[in-house]
Amino acid sequence: MASKLLRAVVLGPPGSGKGTVCERIARSFGLQHLSSGQFLRESLGGGDAQGGAAVGLQLWSCVMDGFGSILAAFLPLIPAPVHCDAYTGFPRTLGQAKALDRICELDLVISLNIPFETLKDRLSARWVHPGSGRVYNMDFNPPHVQGIDDLTGEPLVQREDDRPEAVAARLRKYKDAAKPVIELYKSRGILHSFSGTETNKIWPYVYTLLSSKIPPVLSDEEN
To answer: Rounded to an integer, what distance in angstroms lies between the CA atom of residue 206 and that of residue 161?
Structure first.
């Protein structure tokens, strides 16, 4: 059985590609990807577009330190063996970072820095499948049938906070909340920041960093 060698967090504003990066990390290094959205959906029993998803957003906005208890509840359920737990979408505030400290010690934090205009365009074109959290972008990753999830055939929705008028406020809120979190991890010497406008161009640098920490199971070209 492999021992846990690394615990990592991927930070970034809404639309920065955190989920895509974590999925590639999981494939390339044989790791377990844990997302805050996954925890919320499972803790709420899924829910529909107008019910569970809305409750999940409200819950996320108010849990703060308490979210650590949800995270802790799911950690024992992770299948073994795993080399690493890679968290995405958490922590978003200093309070949540301190809650995570009580659960585990992080070895690595990856911060994605994407220009405001790029994020605004990405978010405004984003649609999701509420039941699974699958994300589509109408510009570069559209569904096979417009407005329909590829796997279930169920309708996609655009979240209220992905609408153009709400995006700017979301990004400002993230910037204010994330600054002390980033400073915390920077002071610990575990923060690694990557800047760019395309995930495909940022990814090789993330891959190289992780390859120095843990052996990959796939080459960069295979991912």
So the answer is: 28
